[in-house]
Amino acid sequence: GGRPRAGLPRPPRRTGGASGGEAMSHLKASALVGGVVLLLGGAATGMWWLGRDDSPGPSSVTFRLQSPTPTATPPSDPFAGSPAAAYEDGEAGLAMPAAKATSDLTRTEVEAAYARIKRILVAADLTPATVYLGDTRPLEGALDPGQAKGLASRRAWMNAFAPGSVVAATPVVKVHGTVTPSPSKDGMSVKTDHNFVYAVHPPKRPDRVQRVVVRRTVTFTVTRRDGEVGVWVSRIGRSAAPVPCSSRGDWIRPTFPGDPGGGDSTGRLEDPYDLSRPPNFDGGCGHVTGT
């Protein structure tokens, strides 16, 4: 069938600046018979890449990963025994670089841009109403008004579990990652790359706690227009494990210990906690070591 098409609202036209290429993607994981978890992206079988820099329009490609079947996580200490135990709690894991002036932006303007970026990440990935209820209003309030419309159809812009699918085992979300600025002709580009680790369980089953690892990369374009500095989301990537391969859309639907699985996967072994490896958002098939 034809490839699904969608895109990111673009910043206002400006002279010079970074490429207008934009992308969005996500991975999915599912428990397989035989003790594995399959990750794949896209609405059904493909990972979304929307508006890639090297393509004239939106496209979709496939990517799959598998890992050992989820095992029970101690409800009293759900991050124990995992790399997430060493991660920062919540906003503390979203540290921004020291603000430095660029050829187009003052240090104060860069500092304000970092504050806006952090606010967007908190709204999208840490706010309970967003994550557990699917409320788009926190992110709408953080984004530029030109990008805030229609978020209900762009769930990959946030980490949101399918309504009614999970209960938070703890209010703590573990966060670790990097924020990398780079200059552009009329401002700067800022790429964020973080793991967000949530501890959740099915409704009325607090004994079935599962860690869910979501890697999110977001590239922000910071430019001056009409005398003010604007912050725009220009590229998004997302992977999540473990969630069932039968999942549809951009909601996160975790696999829990004891859930039935299905699907096939082959390929290399990857650690979802390893942020030193480039995000594999370009298709293919592989394995993950677990969450």
Could you explain how this protein is built, in words?
By secondary structure, the protein is mainly β. It has one domain. Helix content is 11%, strand content 30%. The longest helix is centred in the middle third of the chain and has 19 residues. The N terminus is likely disordered.
What is the compact description of this entry?
The chain has 3 helices and 13 strands.
Number of helices: 3
Indicate the mean pLDDT: 75
Q: How big a fraction of the residues is strand?
A: 25-35%
> What's the structural domain tally?
1
In angstroms, what is the radius of gyration? 19 Å
- Helix and strand content put the structural class at mainly beta
How can the largest sheet be summarized?
6 strands, antiparallel
How many individual β-strands?
Answer: 13
List low-pLDDT spans.
1-7, 13-69, 262-267
How far is the first residue's CA from the last residue's CA? 34 Å
Instruction: Estimate percent helicity.
Output: 10-25%
Overall shape? globular
Series of secondary-structure elements, N-terminal to C-terminal: EEEEEEHHHEEEEEEE
Transmembrane segments: 29-50
Biased composition (Polar residues): 57-67
Keywords: Membrane, Transmembrane, Transmembrane helix
Region (Disordered): 1-22, 57-83, 249-291
